[in-house]
What does this fold into?
Amino acid sequence: MTTPAPSSSPSSSPSPAPAVLDVAQARASLDELVVVDVRTPSEYAAGHLPGALNVPVDRIRRALPDVRRAAERSRVLVVCASGARSARACALLAEHGVAAATLDGGTGAWAAAGHDLHRPAACDTRAGWSMERQVRFTAGVLMLLGLVLGLLVHPLLLLLPAGTAGGLVLSALTGTCGMAALLGRLPHNRPRATDLDAALAALRGR
It folds into this structure.
């Protein structure tokens, strides 16, 4: 008598990894894609893929119904600066049954390939620091400040640069960044309600 092979339950299966498009694939099918840029508003204003709609990664949950409807009509491509935030957004969408692809290398790879990035006519690009640049700047300031205070005020303050360095190592190992999450809550990194509403309305129209 043979023992039947155990069957795996669909509910226990892990969510599939998000599809990844390289720059050439995205460029070839751009007119058929709904592009969602999950960077901060300042990053988006500094340059984004043609036709991209800005829905910061921390607002994806609010946008779920509109992204789901858009995905039923067209393929959704999620982009960020390098691909890390877009991969997280795609994973969240997948948890709610919404299929989306991510752009390999993000807008950085798009620009490096020689493709244009669109900017609003009145954009002041000096304020458009990427989140990675903001994290590097903040981490550097905290480490320098901690070293100075530790030498001049009290040695225990050396824990500040040590903790910052440990956070950077943890970020690299886990692919997440708590500092980026905190910086994303600053006013210049958050969309105005009217801008987000306009992006969601445009999603509904796709």
Confidence is low (pLDDT under 50) at residues 1-15, 122-127. Strands lie at 19-21, 33-37, 53-54, 75-79, 101-103. The longest strand covers residues 33-37.
